[in-house]
């Protein structure tokens, strides 16, 4: 039954869970941070927050999707987010 509750169907950004320290360290090297994106209709997913517009193409190559409401890139899982961040950090070191 639909309601007029303005909080229903809202997405939420949550702090990163324990075990995401490697991803957080890599994100920090890029001036970003990580957290969990909890949509109202699914499980929490790994999220990258920060000024990452210049990295958009690489993030999309790793399967990220952009959430325009929260302005974050969301990944299916933490290993995929970590792999994307590792790839970006390594490519910056080699250039």
Strand content: 15-25%
The beta-strand count equals 5
The pLDDT mean sits at 84
Strand order of the largest sheet: 1-2-3-5-4
Estimated helix fraction: 25-40%
Structural class: alpha+beta
N/C terminus separation: 55 Å
Number of helices: 3
Uncertain segments are 1-9
Taking the sheet with the most strands, its summary is:
5 strands, antiparallel
- Output the radius of gyration: 14 Å
Global geometry: globular
One letter per element, helices H and strands E, the order comes to EHEEHEEH
What topology does this entry show?
Blueprint: E1 12-15, H1 21-29, E2 33-38, E3 45-49, H2 56-61, E4 65-67, E5 72-75, H3 78-93
Antiparallel strand pairs: 1-2, 2-3, 3-5, 4-5
Helix pairs in contact: 1-3
Describe the overall structure.
This protein is of the alpha+beta class and 95 residues long. Helix content is 33%, strand content 23%. The protein is built from three helices and five strands; from the N terminus they run βαββαββα. Strand 4 (65-67) and strand 5 (72-75) form a beta hairpin. Helix 1 runs parallel beside helix 3. Mean pLDDT is 84; it is low at 1-9.
Summarize the structure.
With 95 residues, this protein is α+β, with helices and mostly antiparallel strands.
Please describe the structure with a list of short key phrases separated by commas or semicolons.
95 residues; alpha+beta; 33% helix; globular; disordered N terminus
